Amino acid sequence: MDTFDNNVEKPSSNHHRRPRYSGTHPKSFQQKYKEHNIGAHPELRTHLRAKGKTPAGSHIPVLIEEVIGCLKPKAGQTIADCTVGYGGHSLEFIKRIGPTGKLIAFDVDGAELERTRQRLSKEKVSISFYHSNFAGIANAMSKEKLEGYDIIFADLGVSSMQIDNPARGISYKNEGPLDMRMDERLKQTGADLLNSLSEEELAKTLWELSDEPDYKEIAHLIVIQRAVQPITQVSQLVRLVFAVKGLTINSWKKQQRSSKFGSLHPAARTFQALRILVNDELSCLKELLRIAPYCLRPGGRIGIISFHSGEDRLVKQSFRDGVENGIYQSASQNAIVPRTKEIMSNPRCASAKFRWAIKGV
Ligand code: SAH
Fold first, then answer.
1. CA of 76 to the centre of ligand 1 (A)
2. What number does the ligand 1 atom closest to the CA of 285 have?
3. Does the C-beta of 300 come closer than 6 Å to ligand 1?
4. Does residue 61 have its Cβ closer than 6 Å to ligand 1?
5. Which residue owns the Cα nearest ligand 1 atom 23?
6. How many CB atoms lie within 10 A of CB 189?
7. What residue ranges of the chain are covered by domains with CATH 1.10.150.170?
8. Whose CA is nearest to atom 2 of ligand 1?
9. Dihedral sign of CA atoms 286, 105, 322, 291 in order
10. Which CATH superfamily does the domain covering 64-160+282-359 fall into?
């Protein structure tokens, strides 16, 4: 049994029975105890993956072949995985850098970082974990007495574990508190911001961070509704967005059934914008892009996977400027995107865009 699954089922002297669920299959995130311990249930993993699903409490790494092919990790190298998450990319790096290599792993999510630390503890390579924003790669470099990293890698945004956990309030799909913080040390939750920002600030957030077309109307209704009752739950925000768009849950489902490919959930952009704001994601990315060239060894490589146009624009511009200024010797011409086969097996990777750059020697 994987030791990190201690939040789900832990045999101990005062062993508690698992909560029973009605019906034949577990539905909620917490009830999926087998999925949380997927290492012990390989047949369930195969079954879920064949259906394009991610087992609860885990994460399927995206664009693995492309990342490895472009960043070319080699024996003995030092790699900064800025967003270690479930450790999917890290495991692939570890295989290639071998016992003489070093992995420096960062994540702002303390709970998931601890699980990943335990999951990777069997690996025969030196790994240092930092419960830190990736803006801390420079500090870590001096702590680890490094001249620079051979590879800096970041897979931006949220993990499947974070999306699926209703207690996080990141997804419009699961009822829960509108928390949205990846780092529990942050002071303000999504609910705090929804109930305190001005209408103008809310509208600006919705437009700039997710291109929500109904940004003005949604911001206006948030301000009206919160005067009656604070908006603290996922379902309140989903209902509000549906109201603005003149939809009901039933009319939306009907629309979904008749559309060939399915369309973006009406509340997806609103949730994305709020999450990016809560976690100050764009400022963190700008800082990473600013300091990365100074943290790379000559000839070192940087690779970044982003999931929306706001992030991708920043990465593209920074790598392009770096080549023009001579900081980078080369950079990817176009964003590398997942192949259809990968999207079919992991629909969550559909919007991924990968770019890389190589520091001058
Ligand atoms: N590549 C990983 C998945 C990464 S998911 C894997 O294959 O398993 C993205 C992770 O980045 C999440 O765990 C999230 O908590 C973390 N994250 C997001 N912004 C961050 C930041 N600014 N600094 C450090 N970690 C961050």
1. 24
2. 22
3. no
4. yes
5. 133
6. 19
7. 187-278
8. 85
9. positive
10. Vaccinia Virus protein VP39 (3.40.50.150)
Residue limits of CATH 3.40.50.150 in the chain: 64-160+282-359
Residue whose Cα lies nearest atom 18 of ligand 1: it is: 157
Going across the sheet that includes 353-359, the strands are 126-130, 102-106, 78-81, 149-155, 296-306, 353-359, 328-331
The CATH architecture annotation of domain 187-278 reads Orthogonal Bundle (1.10)
Written as tens digits, the pLDDT of the chain (361 aa) is: 333 333 333 444 455 666 666 776 766 776 666 667 777 777 766 776 777 777 777 778 999 999 999 999 999 999 999 999 999 999 999 999 999 999 999 999 999 999 999 999 999 999 999 999 999 999 999 999 999 999 999 999 899 999 999 999 999 999 999 999 999 999 999 999 999 999 999 999 999 999 999 999 999 999 999 999 999 999 999 999 999 999 988 888 888 887 765 678 999 999 999 999 999 999 999 999 999 999 999 999 999 999 989 999 999 999 999 999 999 999 999 999 999 999 988 888 999 999 999 999 9
Mutate to test the pocket of ligand 1, among 60, 159, 276, 351 (most ligand atoms within 8 A of CB): 159
CA dihedral for 277, 279, 281, 285, sign (positive or negative): positive
- Ligand 1 atom 25: the closest Cα is on which residue? 107
Task: Find the 116 Cα to ligand 1 centroid distance in Å.
Answer: 12
